[in-house]
Amino acid sequence: FDTEQKYDPENPKGVWEYLESRQPVQVSIGYSLDEGYIEWMPLCNTYSTGNVKVSRGGVVTECTFETTSLLQQLEKEYTEGVYTAEGATLYDLAEKVMAFCGYPDIIELDDSLRSIRTKAPLTVQPCNQILQLIANAGMCVFVMRRSGIPAMIKLPEVSEDFHFDGTKIFDRPVTSKYPVLRDLKTTYSIYTVESEETDLIKNASVSQMAHTEIVYSYSNSVNQRVVAGSGVTVESSKFYVNRAVLVVSGTGTISLRGYLVTETKVDVTKVVHEVGDTLEMSNSFITSEEHAQQYADWIAREMERRIEYTAEDRGYPELDVGD
Fold first, then answer.
1. DSSP class of residue 293?
2. Residue 185 half-sphere exposure, CB side, CA atoms within 13 Å?
3. 63 bridge partner residues
4. Which of 2, 103, 143, 202 is placed for a possible disulfide with 61 were both Cys, Cβ 3.0 to 4.6 Å?
5. Segment holding 128, helix H or strand E
6. Which pTM does this prediction carry?
7. Is 93 helix (H, G, I), strand (E, B) or coil?
8. Contact 313, 168 (CB under 8 A)
9. Angle, helix 90-100 to helix 127-137, in steps of 10 degrees
């Protein structure tokens, strides 16, 4: 309750402006003990969205602030992907995406991601989706720590600190048995740079521009360049795998040229049993046969668990205080 209207957006001397988007907000949960004091435990770390609701009732003002997890703050579209013949490690790509979103070094990455390379360029899509794909390609799971930090981690073969049994549910579970996994189909991509330069954008019209930023989209390519017609001045240019950002002035036409990067999909099938279901799963960051085989082995191993249990559980505050 804000009796002094410190958080009222209409108060020019208030502090509400410090709760604009991306401000860290630490949330704790309190447990009232018999001794008469409250034990506070960290619940989660979130970030403000900038949405503030003020409700006045007499001399008391109630303020409500909206916060979300860091994962929800990563919905910005990544637009700076490039293609290089040597590729990059999944570890480096994840760090690059976080830095692009404005959260450098705020991610936990398994060291195994340093040894997995991909030649796939980062295309235009939300950053949180790219991070999920990177984790999956690295045979990791993408989780949020209690501290609010996203993490790509390997799951252990056997749980070391938690055992699930009948004492943790209220009634006998409903058991569902699925057919065994017959085979798993996946793919990997081979990227090739064409030998001849081609038009990416041809004779795009520019009319009475003055220091104007223009974004052009085109097919995946490398070594792009601008061909400006008479009357047009290109003041600056930034090229990415499938988009260019130009600042231009004048009237005329602009063309963009470059070398197309083509993608060829190769199928990989892992046979598990002679009968059963077929599962198809692929990841755009897999660009070698060795990586595809490792990925197929990992998915098949996880999907071999063909029994599902459904039950009402009691929650696990010993693992997560949020329960």
1. H
2. 7
3. 54
4. 2
5. helix 127-137
6. 0.85
7. helix
8. yes
9. 170
